[in-house]
Amino acid sequence: MLNATVAELSSALAARQVSSVELAQLFLERIDRLNGSLNAFITVDAERALEQARRADAQRAGNAVVGPLTGVPIAHKDIYCTKGMRTTCGSRMLENFVSPYDAHVIERLESAGTVTLGKTNMDEFAMGSSNETSYYGPVRNCWNRGCVPGGSSGGSAVAVAARMAPAATGTDTGGSIRQPAALTGTCGLKPTYGLVSRYGMIAFASSLDQGGPMARSAQDLALLLNAMAGFDRRDSTSVERAPEDYARMLDLSLDGLRIGVPEQFFGEGLDADVRARVEEALHWFLAQGARRVPLRLPNAELALPVYYVLAPAEASSNLSRYDGVRYGHRATEYEDLLDMYVRSRTEGFGEEVKRRILVGTYVLSHGYYDAYYLQAQKLRRLIAQDFVQAYRDCDVILGPTTPTTAFALGSKVDDPLQMYLNDIYTIPAPLAGLPALSIPCGFDAQGLPVGLQLTGNYFAEARLLGIAQRYQLATDWHLRVPREAPL
Amino acid sequence: MSLSKDEVDRIARLARLAVRPEESAAVIERLNRVLGMIETMRAVDTRQVEPMAHALDVVQRLRADEVTEVDQHVLFQSIAPAVERDLYLVPKVIE
C-alpha cells in the first residue's frame, strides 16, 4: 500500500481492501521512521489525521456518496493555512502562527475526504530552489541524502518520493512545484494562473503564485486537480470557468501531436545527461506519431532578470504585513514602534527573504521604478507573446525542467546567482501564466532523477496530463523507489 | 551599477530591516551581484510595449455593497503578540 498511487488507493478503499484509518497509520509510521533523517515535514498531527480517517471510514460504511479521494492521505505544503494547526511558511516569523481559517485548497481537499497527515517543509516564504532557506533545516533528497531536493516545495516532493505520503500540495511562483518534482523523481503540475484559489495560501508574488498538486503519476495529478481547482470569490484573480474533468484526456492519442522544442531550452548550461534523457523522451513521443516543431522563444533569456525584478517587488510589498503587531514574531526588546518593526522583521526573516525584500524595495523606490519595475513588466509581455506565437504552431512545448540534477547540500547556498539559475527553464511559464508540469524521464550517471517539462497553452491542463499519462504507461521512471528510502 | 553601504542602509530603512554591521559587506556584495544580473534587461528597447501587470486579462469583480463578514476579533486577536481591551498593543507613538 505504501507504494500505491492515489488511484490505486482509491480503488482499494472503494473495494474495502483497506480502511482509511489503516492507511493513515501506515503513512504516519513511515513518516515517524524517515522524517528524522529526511526532514520533509515541519508538523505532523497524527490525532487530527486519524480523526479525519475515522470520519472517512464512517462515511463509506454509512453508504454516503463518497468521492475518489475519500480516505486518501495527503500532505500539505506549510504555506497553506490550516485552521487550528500551525502554519510556519518555513519561517521563524510564523513559528507559532496558528491560522484562524483554512486555505481554499485545504477546504476543497478536506471536503473531498482527504486525510491531512501534516505540513511539509519548504524554503522560507517559498523563496529558494534547494529547501536550504527553511528556518526548520534543509530537507534531504531521498535519492542521495547529501543532495538537496529542490525547492521551494522540497518537503512535499520528498514526502511523495519517499512514500511518506501518496500525494501532496505545492505552490509554484518560478518553479517551486516543478523543480523539486524533477530533482526527486516525482510529478508536479503548476496550473494556469487563476485556476486554483490563492485564498489562505501565504503570498510571495501574487501575480505569479499558483497552487498545484504533486504526486507519483499524471493520473494522480488529474485526480487531485479535480478537487483543487475551482472558482473562489475570495481570490480576486480566481478564474470563473465551468468545472472540468482533468482526467478526461488520459487516453489521448499522440498521433499528430505537435511538440514544440525551443532551442533556448537546450543551450549552454544544460547538463549532458539531462539533455540526453530529455531527447530520449522526445524521440519516444516522435515514435508514437508526434511531430517535432522547432521553436524560438527569443525573449526567454530575459525571463530570469525579469522574474528577479517582479517577484522581489511583489514580495517586498506582500511581506510588509509582518510587523509584529497582529500576528507573527515580535522582538522582545525594542525602543519605539519603528525599532519594534525593524527588530521583529530582522529577527523573523532569514537571509534570502531579506535579500529579496531589499531587491524589491530598491526596484520600486523613487527614481528606479520605471527603469526596473516597469521595464520588467514590459518584458514580461514580450515573453508571454513569444508563447502565444509558439502555440500557433504547436500543441505543447517540451524541454528539461532543470539544467542539472540534484546538487550537493551547501554547494550553491552562498551564491544567489548560481541558485537562481536552477529555475531558468521553469520561470517563463509563470511569467506568461501558462500551465506546466514535470515528470520523471530517467536518471543521470549518478543515479539521480531527471525531469521532463511539458508546458501547455492556457487552460490545457487536461491535455498536458493526457500526454504525460501516455508516456507513463510506456515507461516506469515514475515507479522507481528511491534508494535511500527503500520500502 | 553598484550600491554603496549608505544606499543599502537607506533601502533597508525603507523596508524596515536592519543590516547587521558584521554581515554588511557580504550582504552588499551578494545584493550587487543580483542587481548586476537584473541590469541585463535594461538594454532592451520596450518603448512600444504595454506593461503586463498580470498573467491573465481579467477585470476586477465587483460585489454588492453589503456586510458579508462577521465579527471575529476575539479569534483574530488570540494570535496577536500583545492585546489589551480588544486593542492591539504597540509602543507609545505620541508622547
Mean pLDDT across all amino acids of chain B: 92
Placed side by side, the strands forming the largest sheet of chain A appear as: 4-6-5-10-11-9-7-8
Let me know the average pLDDT of chain A.
97
The CATH architecture name of the domain at 6-254 and 437-479 in chain A reads Alpha-Beta Complex
Q: Into which percent range does the helicity of residues of chain B fall?
A: 25-40%
Q: Pairing-aware structural class of the strands and helices of chain B?
A: mainly alpha
CATH topology of the domain at 6-254 and 437-479 in chain A: Amidase signature (AS) enzymes
User: Strand-residue fraction of chain A?
Assistant: 5-15%
Q: How is the largest sheet of chain B built, in terms of strand order?
A: 1-2
Major β-sheet annotation of chain B: 2 strands, antiparallel
Please state the CA-atom Rg of chain A, rounded to the nearest Å. 21 Å
Overall CATH class of the domain at 6-254 and 437-479 in chain A: Alpha Beta
Describe this structure as you would to a colleague.
The complex is a heterodimer of chains A (487) and B (95). Chain A is built from 15 helices and eleven strands. The longest helix of chain A has 22 residues, at 369-390. Helix content of chain A is 37%, strand content 13%. The radius of gyration of chain A is 21 Å and the shape is globular. In chain A, strand 10 (436-443) and strand 11 form a beta hairpin. Chain A is α/β, with parallel strands linked by helices and 487 residues long. Chain B has a domain at 5-43. Chain B is 33% helix and 4% strand. Chain B contains three helices and two strands. The longest helix of chain B has 16 residues, at 24-39. The two termini of chain B are 43 Å apart. The model of chain B has no long low-confidence stretch (mean pLDDT 92). Classes of the chains: A alpha/beta (487), B mainly alpha (95). Chains A and B meet through helix 9, helix 10, helix 11, helix 12 and helix 13 of A and helix 1, helix 2 and helix 3 of B.
